Amino acid sequence: MLEFDHVTFRYAKNMPVVLSDTSLKFGKGEFIAITGRNGSGKTTITRLLTGLEKPTEGRVLYEGKDITKEEASERSRFIGYVFQQPDRQMFMPTVREEIALGPYHQGKRGEELNRMVEKAMMETDTTALAEAYPRTLSRGDQQRVAIASALAMDTEYLILDEPTSGQDGHEKKMLMRLMESLQQRGITIILVTHDMDIVARDCTRVIVIASHKVAFDGRPEELFSAKNRPEDWGLLYPASVLLGRKLPGAPYCRDMDSFCRTFIALKGEGAL
Ligand SMILES: Nc1ncnc2c1ncn2[C@@H]1O[C@H](COP(=O)(O)OP(=O)(O)OP(=O)(O)O)[C@@H](O)[C@H]1O
């Protein structure tokens, strides 16, 4: 369990508060979206979790232990972070060396190191890129290399900042499939995203940040239910959710596949 305990944050003394007295728990195996308007503080939350920023007040806990003062390099033993522009986190001349860097710093050598790197490349479908120069790869490939780097360190938490922005449908689908398989292995996935299709289809939990606080924390179907107004937080409804509401009984349809299946079933029952 990774936790914010009454965290308040501002970038500098005379700057406005970004996050105010916020407590949050990130449990094992969850698939969490952090969303909200531009500038609401989503990336800041991930930087506080990874240790790239330190709370102005409050604490960050890992398995109940205070890790507030731990640097990002120390937290990388259990948190992997995929930057919005992953080329900024690649330093080595080849993908293989890039992925080996973390476990090497953890003291892994020889066959053990090779095995970890090969396994991480297999899992992320980056084996064919092993000898490529990471900084010239496409953003999608760089993301998978950054994910492989985290897996090679046996990460427990994987945080991705806007991973699907600017990606085509196929790339998006491949990435989300990979995230799903990692979640099934018990890795906690935390995504910063504006993409409500991903929130509705893939996430088990969604956290909305507004006015320096957690405005909503719950299941996607709750966020998009009639008792909430996600549009007040600048969020759009997924088309499948809106279409589902028009069907008899207004079923919640998390994606278009689910809408089509429900539609066909209702038609078969003569309800349409
Ligand atoms: N390094 C920094 N120094 C000062 N202020 C910053 C810094 N980084 C971000 N901010 C400010 O902190 C606030 C929160 O920024 P943050 O990037 O966390 O928001 P966000 O919700 O991720 O935004 P976006 O959706 O546009 O990526 C914004 O007002 C932003 O201008």
Automatic annotation (TrEMBL):
Family: Belongs to the ABC transporter superfamily.
UniProt keyword annotation of DNA-binding present: no
ATP-binding among keywords: yes
GO molecular function: ATP binding; ATP hydrolysis activity; ATPase-coupled transmembrane transporter activity
Membrane topology summary: Peripheral membrane protein
Keywords: ATP-binding, Cell membrane, Membrane, Nucleotide-binding, Translocase, Transport
Subcellular location as annotated: Cell membrane
InterPro entries documented for this protein: AAA+_ATPase (IPR003593), ABC_transporter-like_ATP-bd (IPR003439), ABC_transpr_CbiO/EcfA_su (IPR015856), ECF_ABC_transporter_ATP-bd (IPR050095), P-loop_NTPase (IPR027417)
Taxonomy, superkingdom: Bacteria
Organism for this UniProt entry: Dialister hominis
Record-annotated ABC transporter domain positions: 2-236
Any one GO CC term of the record: ATP-binding cassette (ABC) transporter complex
Name used for this protein in its record: ABC transporter ATP-binding protein
